[in-house]
Amino acid sequence: MKQNIEDFQNLNSLLNKELNQKEILASEVLKRDGRKEEFSSEKIYNALHSAFSSLVNQEEMIAEKTEEITNEVIKTLKELKKELYSVEEIQDIVEETLMKSGNLDVARTYIRYRYKRGVIREKDSNLMREIAEAIMAKNVQNSNANLDEYSAGGRMGEVSSLILKDYALNQCMSEMSRNNHLNNEIYIHDLNSYSLGIHNCLSIPFDDLLAKGFTTRQVDIRPANSISTAMQLVAVIFQIQSLQQFGK
Questions:
Q1: Taking the domains of the chain in order of start, what are their residue ranges?
Q2: In angstroms, rounded to a whole number, what is the distance separating the alpha carbons of residues 201 and 238?
Q3: How far apart are CA 86 and CA 31, in angstroms?
Q4: pLDDT tens, position by position, for the chain (248 residues)?
Q5: Comparing C-alpha atoms, which of 72, 43, 69 is closest to residue 56?
Q6: Backbone angles phi, psi at 247, to 5 degrees
Q7: Is the backbone of residue 136 left (phi > 0), alpha (psi -120 to 50) or beta?
Q8: How do beta strands 85-86 and 28-30 pair?
Q9: What is the residue-wise DSSP string for the chain?
Q10: Cβ burial, residue 124 (10 Å; 0-12/13-18/19+)
Q11: Residue 36: beta bridge partners?
């Protein structure tokens, strides 16, 4: 492991020496958000190392292949002789180099990783845009009659709601449930309270409870045999639900 680290440091030092020569390669990369930063061969090396590591178990071979592809990517960038490179352009060259070298499985792994990162960036970008609109009160709907979304408290509430909804969809339910909700195949009410376990509106299966009976903490309730009993049990069910959910 120590030898591998030293090999990588030597490679990185060599690559950076090459990059310092202006006639060889530009020293800046254009980020997706418009910022510019100094080119780093280490980022290419690390990305390739992760891709190879997911498929190859031999560290020596991983280091050798990673170094080989990194050198080829640097060589291609050098031949382009551009003043500025975008992140996408560099990643495209990495993919092409992997495929040309016959490392198709690694190329597929790298492409999948790149796609997943793109999905995450897009999701985060959409969330940030929605938060900005809520803060600036650009899309006020006043869906809650008791809250003015133009007020400071109203805008804070909307931002909190957006974050909690996003967390519930991406951290608290299955992929199928999330997709069904987003595709309007089902509707999860009070989504902003989902992760907290608080739901003001519930779909209680009264038909099943009244037909089969149910059990509380204290007693078993038999099925209703009359309209009068059924209505009494409906009141009991509401009371039990309130006690279970809100402790009141």
A1: 2-114, 136-196, 206-246
A2: 12
A3: 6
A4: 545 545 555 555 554 544 443 334 556 888 776 788 888 888 889 889 988 888 878 888 888 889 999 999 988 988 888 888 888 888 899 999 999 988 888 888 888 888 888 777 777 777 888 888 888 888 777 666 666 777 887 788 888 888 899 888 888 888 888 888 888 888 888 888 888 877 666 667 888 889 998 888 778 889 989 999 999 999 988 888 777 766 65
A5: 69
A6: 70, 30
A7: alpha
A8: parallel
A9: -HHHHHHHHHHHHHHHHHHTSTTT--SEEE-TTS-EEE--HHHHHHHHHHHHHTT---HHHHHHHHHHHHHHHHHHHHHH--S-EEHHHHHHHHHHHHHHTT-HHHHHHHHHHHHHHHHHHHHHHHHHHHHHHHHTT-S----STT--TTSHHHHHHHHHHHHHHHHHHHHSS-HHHHHHHHTTSS--TTGGGGGGT--SS----HHHHHHH-EE-SS-EEPPP-SHHHHHHHHHHHHHHHHHHHH--
A10: exposed
A11: 30
Q: Return the structure tokens found at 217.
A: 């903490």
- The two structure tokens encoding residue 111: 């492409």
